[in-house]
Specification:
Elements lengths: L25 H5 L2 E6 L2 E5 L5 E2 L2 E2 L10 E7 L2 E7 L31 E4 L1 H4 L5 H19 L10 E4 L4 E4 L5 E2 L4 E10 L2 E6 L11 E4 L6 H13 L3 E12 L4 E10 L13 E6 H9 L13 H10 L5
Parallel strand pairs: 1-6, 11-15
Antiparallel strand pairs: 1-2, 1-4, 2-3, 2-7, 5-6, 8-9, 9-10, 11-12, 11-13, 12-16, 14-15
């Protein structure tokens, strides 16, 4: 797919400068710029369209907080710092609704125009570079948070290699950030596609079917298995379209097109809540907002991206 890297979180071509990891000196860090993460949210400058906020690594609110080296932009060293130990005022507490947290938090030592937002809520307004930085930082800090102990001996591990590795303090085993591969599929039958909804989706929202790859499984086999398990629809030829890093929490979405060889749907209620076939003309009405019976996948997601390009006949 020629437009594959125009997907949200893709196409920035950040220089990650992996050769510098673990070799940075204090002067490199103090002169660098940092994005800021708070409990999975990103700090943005919210005047007009949000842009990812950058603070000097020497800023007082970043003192003693975990820091990861993200790469460099020309000569500027770029970092991410997690200040999740900061407690916001009681009237700014986060309030997750399961799928999305609409609340905003403002740090008292920053200008009022700086605000912490849920990345899913502002990703469509950010530049491709901002998206790559934010997604990388969010995924890495989530991995560090969930992998504090060694999977070999159970001992406590510590961050090394500028945030790109953890080493066990007891057995010296090294652990590296994980990314979980997920297939997400545009299943077509003539001029129709197969969509479904999970119980935790917002009301009326439908998206493409998706699922994790299993050990020893090819991408093509995973597409066929997931569709069959969830809807009992059989799939023939499968082709790759595009991929998207999805830091909610640590996935790589592998977008594929599959051609259905059957249409009868029988859902597995343990997997999904509903599934249906929808025609191109009907989906155009959904995207135009003139069909209020269902809502499309969130803009910025690879599901929205693939459906939009299917509607425009731009999957090649």
């Amino acid at each position: 797919m020629k437009l594959a890297e125009t997907v949200t979180f893709g196409g920035s071509r950040l220089d990650r400068a992996a050769q510098l990891r673990g070799n940075l000196v204090e002067t490199d860090i103090s002169k660098g710029q940092s994005i800021v993460i708070w409990r999975g949210k990103v700090l943005v400058l919210s005047k007009g369209n949000p842009t990812l906020a950058m603070l000097s690594c020497a800023h007082p609110i970043l003192a003693d907080a975990p820091q990861i080296f993200l790469g460099r932009d020309d000569e500027t060293m770029l970092f991410a710092t997690d200040i999740s130990t900061w407690e916001p005022p009681s009237d700014q507490e986060s309030q997750s609704l399961g799928f999305f947290d609409p609340t905003e938090q403002r740090h008292p030592d920053l200008p009022a125009s700086f605000v912490f937002l849920e990345l899913r809520g502002c990703m469509n307004a950010l530049s491709s570079r901002d998206c790559e930085l934010a997604a990388t930082a969010r995924a890495l800090f989530q991995w560090h948070q969930s992998h504090k102990f060694c999977s070999r001996c159970g001992g406590r591990s510590a961050m090394t290699q500028s945030g790109w590795q953890r080493n066990c303090n007891d057995c010296n085993a090294s652990h590296f950030p994980r990314t979980d591969p997920v297939v997400i599929m545009l299943i077509t039958h003539g001029e129709e596609i197969l969509i479904g909804r999970s119980p935790n989706f917002p009301e009326k929202m439908y998206s493409l079917l998706a699922g994790f790859l299993e050990p020893g499984e090819t991408i093509e086999a995973a597409v066929r298995r997931e569709v069959l398990e969830e809807t009992n629809v059989e799939v023939g030829p499968v082709t790759y379209l595009a991929s998207q890093p999805w830091a909610f929490p640590n996935s790589l979405m592998i977008g594929c097109q599959g051609h259905a060889t059957s249409k009868q749907i029988t859902i597995d209620p343990h997997e999904i809540e509903d599934a249906l076939w929808i025609s191109k003309s009907e989906m155009m009405d959904v995207f135009a907002g003139t069909n209020d019976t269902l809502f499309p996948a969130r803009p910025g997601s690879i599901a929205h991206f693939l459906i939009k390009h299917w509607l425009a006949d731009r999957l090649d």
